[in-house]
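pinning this so it doesn't scroll away 📌
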Amino acid sequence: MADIDIDRLVAQLEAYNTAYRSGAPLVEDATYDRLVERLRALDPQHPFVQSVEPEKFTGRTQVRHPLPMLSTEKAYTEDQLARFVQRVEKEASAIGLAEVQFEATPKLDGLAGRDDGEVLASRGNGLVGFDISNAWAKGVVPVGGRGQGLGEITVVQSYFDAHLAELFEHPRNMVVGVISSDTLNPHARQALEAGMVRFVPYNQLPRWQGPAAELLAQIETISRQLAAQTDYPMDGVVVSACEAALRERMGATSHHYRWQIAVKRKGDTAVTTVENIQWQVGRTGNVTPVLEVAPVALSGATIRRVTAHHAGMVEKLRIGPGARIEVIRSGEVIPKLERVLTPSQQVALPENCPSCGSALTFLKSDDQDKELFLKCHNPACPAQIEQSISHWFRILGNADWFGIKTIRRIVAGGYDSLEKIYDMTEGDFVALGFGPVQSRNLAEALRLSRTQPVEDWRFLAALGIADLGVGDSRKLLQHIPIEALNDFDQASIEKIHGFGEKTSKRIVDGLGQIRGTLTHLLALGFQLERTVLLSESVPTTSPIAGKNLVFTGKMVHGNREQMQGEARRLGANVQTAVSGTTDFLICGEKVGATKRNKAEALGVRILSEADYLQMIAERREGE
């Protein structure tokens, strides 16, 4: 029954999401968020809630992002922000960084996009977006000029309040309509003609910068000050670690960057009673509890399921049928357990995996000693296989049609590995009960996933190896070719900056587990775009080797991503924001004053694009 509920719910969410992103929402935001939370409660590992929500613009050309446009981790309490700061400072200490500088910027509530000076691309699914460059012709104003990188399309808040609030439910709905529709309504046209619809690059936003102690002590004041300086829709502030080396070390998950967090208002709470515990099996075998509770109204939603985080919490806090608990709901986040008011007299942890029946073990997390997990170690566990295959197609990002419902049917039919799935023919899909059109689409999707170009680091991250998300996969492949990974031991990986003893061991163990799969998939001839090896690409005489660079403005030599890639090949560390560690600020055309003024105040050397290229060329001529 649960699978049927999940399938129906996902179909409903996909329909609502499509309508919303086309500018014609079918339900209110609160209703949509409530349904997303219900899906998270039913299946916390479902791809729909583990990745950037899909976004499509019919008839637009797809654009692959040079780096994933990820979502953001959320903090709703001061304790959650403090834990984030502690994690960052721990990583900083490991690389000898005495004090971490943080920056805070407004969290805009608009339509995310990326402008490289040539193409304006929507976020899409985070890996592949859509060309929405016709926004410029419609009258969208690029704040600070073209080529400013990541940002959001939004409308000036004061204008919206004065002229549009009674016509549109939310500023974002109006913006989506502008971007997705060929025919504009007169109100949207007036807003465009008035220059009130804008692409606001993140680097053009006001920002606060300072140490951790000041951030934690003044976060409310900082948030109010940033809001006072921002005349665009906001739903919080984004806090980031400034240092490029620290960002590189911390990397990212498939969902968010570990060095960044969004600080939002704490949600409302309510009291309810636990009726049952449902145990969910994830991709890595962790078995996590979801509390089924007596229905309770909370922030306009009826809550029936609440996450309890991990098995150790269930045991320690004595959570079970009859326990009275306080739950919290914050924005779009699944309702969470806030505290236990009355413990249960019936506390029981499962001894066997709810998916495959194998005996479970009780393990302590390597990352946080307070977290204790139940784990299924059976490599043939259907739930783990399904989630692993789903992870592959989601991260690879170049094969449609493989949703979790389809994957379940394929796995149940005996095709329980990527090796078997990539050997499937159209006839095999028909034999499993898929219709002729869907079978043809599935077979074609497999072919396209092998023949369309895909970055080697994305390919590696899609294999789901512990500690090898997209960021760390890219870092690893800067030192070791993907075909040679199986030949490297733990000590070799430990020598790479940013990979410690425990991480290196988990990576080697993970590679050992998928050795056959990796070899088989590489033999299928995937069209991998190779990461340049630093050992082969960094001239010892490079004038920017080891230097921290920030690029800003529209570049003539190439788009910004191309110039950043070239700088990395010359040994530079590319930063996204000017800080005390920045060595050079390279300015293209139409540069805003914010970065230049900050660079001048910090004593950072400012170069024009021509001066930068001349500096590199002179050194090359002398080699």
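📌 and the second one:
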Amino acid sequence: MATIKEKIEELKDKHSNALLGGGLDKTEAQHKLNKMTARERLHFLFDQGFYDEIFTFVKNGESSFEINEDLSGDGVITGLGAVNGRLVYTSSQDFTVMGGSVGGRHAWKVCQMMQMALKNGAPFISFNDSGGARIQEGIHSLNGYGEIFYHNTLLSGVVPQISIIAGPCAGGAAYSPALTDFIIMVDKIGKMFIAGPHVIKEATGEVISAEELGGAYAQATHSGNIHFIARDDADAIEITQRLLSYLPSNNTEEPPMIGPGDLTIFEDETLNTIIPDDPREPYDMYDVLYRIFDPNSIMEIQKHFAPNMIVAFARLNGKVVGIVANQPIEKFGAIDIDASDKSSRFIRFCNAFNIPIISFVDVPGFLPGVEQEFGGIIRHGAKMLFSFSATTVPKISIIIRKAYGGAYLAMGAKSLGADRVAAWPSAEIAVMGAEGAVSVIFKDEIKNSEDPKTKRAELIDQYRQQFASPYPAAAIGMIDTILEPKKTRQYLSIALESLKNKRELRPMKKHGLIPL
């Protein structure tokens, strides 16, 4: 009979073998591709590199075919640790073990971590680096994917979920990241698509490379599936750590606070002259935002997708807020289908995790065009109206310049439940722009005048002075105040502080029916 000492030595041997994953040769292959191994990623993620690995000795389950490979950990490392001092649960697919393919036990391990994250109210982070379904396990793999998707949905809106695409993520495997809150992809390394280039060529005859189809920039700019592009694994982990610093651990907590929370109020004279006198001249909204929020605190989300809409996390006096802002240097800030989807998703995330929303409005309208109409701009634009209306966290809007029609409402108007609304003197609040309004209202008068061009210009100027200003809206309480731009931080600081105990009850229901 083996002694306890011998059993301990056996444990050490088995543990050492498990830590080797698929072997040194496969580890070296990962490194040659500029990729970390599954455990190296966790070492860099967690504070002091320490994490508690769980289910180290789990191996593969049923298989329809003989598998000669020793599946240590069944192709995924699972555990928990601290990031910025707060508990986080994780799974990290191990490409050195059968290509990180997902079998029954593999999926079970991932779901166990997700259940623990749910029970303990902590974020869940997944590193995706997998060849996809483990064909040898057939329906067990298929069932495993289904259970992962189900748990992604259970966690949604309860704890933050972040996916890092650090290798291939194809076919059904792509749907788990798509169900999470944020996706970070490693440039030139991560790939994400449902049908790869070979399948597409066979099915449609289209020829495209894997990078062009599912690489980081393709997914960030065309589809908007991912939120951040990372240079390498280390950069992806740093983005994850920074992102977590803005998020509460779960939906019952407030976002992390930095500093004592004292109101640091300063006036920036540049804001008084930052908006061009010509309403047709664009400017960069970031020139406004950087002068209002805490230094170096803005973290933009989906930078490469729908750039005409800015969504970002920031801090004001150390408190986390969500920013939704039109970007006039892109499509003049008009809202299109992609901008609607981008902002709606962000608004709903902020609402789920108790993050106040501050809107900066300079919007000439929804983007016109046949492509937009046939693409469903009505349905997509309605998502913004729904999202803002359904949101119960503090909502503050600052009208910078144009605030026209339904697009203004979609940016968080008073009538959609905004708690505080202020306008700069440059604000133009109207059903539509002066040019369009004059063309409709005074069509015959312009047509019958001796000099239609001059008459139209005169009427546009009159309309703009009478209607396209903040004062008519202030007169009926659509806005709370007209604000000298340099005092914007002061206004926001006081408004946010006054809303910190906001409670808003809504009718009981399972959930609203957003126009998807």
